[in-house]
Structures are given as structure tokens and as C-alpha cells.
Amino acid sequence: MFKFVSYLNFILKSTNEHGVHSPFVFNFVTKCLYGMKKRHGTKPIDVLLKSIAYFDAQNISILDHLEAAQVVLESFPGIAFKSTTYDVVFANEFEEFHFKQQLSEGKLHNDSMILIAGIHQNPKKQGQWNALKVLPNITVSIDMYHLGALFIRKEQQKEHFTIRI
Predict the structure, then answer these.
(1) Residue 84: is it exposed, middle or buried by C-beta count within 10 angstroms (0-12/13-18/19+)?
(2) In the chain, how long is the greatest CA-to-CA distance?
(3) Strand 147-151's sheet: what is its strand order?
(4) What is the pLDDT of residues 63-88, one digit of tens each?
(5) What domains can you pick out in the chain, each with its CATH number?
């Protein structure tokens, strides 16, 4: 029942590119999420692959998701998984403590993107998502129902978007 109610709330709040007033998010939605051809069967991995290509990300961290790591290696053979900083982080679980640890260790930088799969899967994950998107270092958050994207962009004011993909 939780997922059904969560999905209804998402549909009522969500928009497409026409409801986006941020040039950065508008370009991400139109040129990446809507503009690139589908690369994988599951939406979280598809968004991950499109984002890597769109941002030309070189340093990736994939936490607790073996299938995503394998697909990324097949699609982008030159990607580095062991790095001192990360352009894109992909995770099923990404608690606030872990984020703060990554930030304090300097592994996340301005323009880092964090993708979290299944943010509406259960109340705990939705709570984690809500806690992360209000952190001071996160300036852009995008709820895509199947996953969420968090961006560290010091040059941008804090905004939250709910986008249908």
C-alpha cells in the first residue's frame, strides 16, 4: 500500500521539462533523460548510463549494486571505480552518515552527482531521501520516483524537482 500511495503523490507533484525553471536541470532533463536513447531495461541503471555519458563522468562509485557495476564496465570500459574523487555515485542505500563521510574525505566535489535507487520503495528509504535532499551541500535534488538524483553545485540556489521519466 505504501508504494501505491507514494506513487500517487509522485504523480500529483511531478512535471516534465515544462515545469523546470533551472537551466542546469532543464538541460539535464531534455538532453540527457529525455534526449538520449534508452540504454538499459531498468530505469535506475538507464539513468546512470545516460548521466555518465551526458556529464562525461570518468570516476564512478557504485555501492551495493553488482549489476550496475557490470553494465557500466561493459558500456564504458575506461571508467575508473577506484578514485580519490567521484563524479557520479550510484547506490541502493546512501544514508546521511555515509554522505557526510564521503564529503569530509573530499571524495565528492562541486558538480558531483549522487543517484539513489528505490527512493520510494519503503518508508525508511523515503526518509533517507528526504534527509539527504535537505543537507546544506546538496543544492539540486530530482525525484524521478524510481530513483533520486542529488547534485552538489555551489553556484546554484537550492531547488527540488519532481520529474516524470
Answers:
(1) exposed
(2) 42
(3) 60-63, 86-91, 108-117, 147-151, 140-143, 159-162
(4) 888 899 999 999 999 899 988 899 99
(5) 2-162 (3.40.50)
Strands 86-91 and 108-117: parallel
CA dist., res. 154 & res. 139, Å (int): 7
The length of the chain is: 165
The residue whose grid cell reads 534527509 is 131
Grid look-up 555519458 returns: 53
Q: Radius of gyration (Cα) for the chain, nearest Å? A: 15
Render pLDDT for 110-160 as a digit per residue (tens, 0 to 9).
999 999 999 999 999 999 899 999 999 999 999 999 999 999 999 999 999
Distance CA 108, CA 98 (A): 11
pTM above 0.70, yes or no: yes
- Checking phi first, is residue 130 left (phi over 0); if not, alpha (psi -120 to 50) or beta? alpha
